[in-house]
Amino acid sequence: MDEKLFQEPCNPWKEVLVIKLFGKNMDYLLMKDRLKKMWKLNEGFDIMDINNDFVSPLAKVEKTMVWIRFPWLNLLYYDENVLFGLTSVMGTPIKVDDNTLNIEGKVFKNLRGD
After folding, report:
1. Total domains, the chain
2. pTM as predicted
3. Long-range pairs for 36-42 at CB < 8 Å and ≥24 separation?
């Protein structure tokens, strides 16, 4: 089967997050409001109640994005290239968070008493 034929029906679902609530029932509007507040979203956000049509144990997850944390990493290695090198062992690095990239400036400001 041509890869494009398979990918086209998947395109609308590329940025979808499926959430299953275990042991709780929550009103649709309440759920939407809570997610909007938690994720600080303003636009481009909608939810859909699919009831029990989605069988999550049977869903195949091929890719997922994860946050990798190195709690005892020396500040010397707080460099985007070094961090991408470390994380590339586990997959394709996407981004280093701004707090990590700006740690050098914060540390020196604190040492100077700024």
Report:
1. 2
2. 0.42
3. none
